[in-house]
Specification:
4 strands, 15% helix, globular, 21% strand, two-stranded antiparallel ribbon, binds iron/sulfur cluster, alpha+beta, two-stranded antiparallel sheet, Alpha-Beta Plaits
Length: 68
């Protein structure tokens, strides 16, 4: 099973990753703030991840790591 790690401190909440996930499991966590004041992205249901790494590829801040 794939594992997605969001490096929350690097995230600026731009939402790009949320637009490319084919399973629609990457969302902005509006209940959380990182130290820069941004709402970081998060994965809602890791079991649905297919490990495509589209989210990691599109992130301009290299804030997502996908392991298969
Ligand atoms: S690796 Fe693919 S399926 Fe998994 S969270 Fe990222 S975009 Fe979605
Ligand atoms: S693309 Fe990167 S910086 Fe933008 S919301 Fe997603 S994880 Fe955060």
């Amino acid at each position: 099973m794939a594992k997605v790690t969001i490096l929350e401190e690097r995230c600026k909440g731009c939402k790009l990753c949320t637009t490319v996930c084919p399973r629609k499991i990457v969302v902005i966590n509006s209940g959380k703030l990182n130290s820069k004041g941004f709402h970081p992205a998060g994965v809602t249901d890791m079991d649905k991840c297919i490990g495509c790494a589209f989210c990691a590829t599109i992130c301009p801040d290299c804030a997502i790591v996908v392991e298969k």
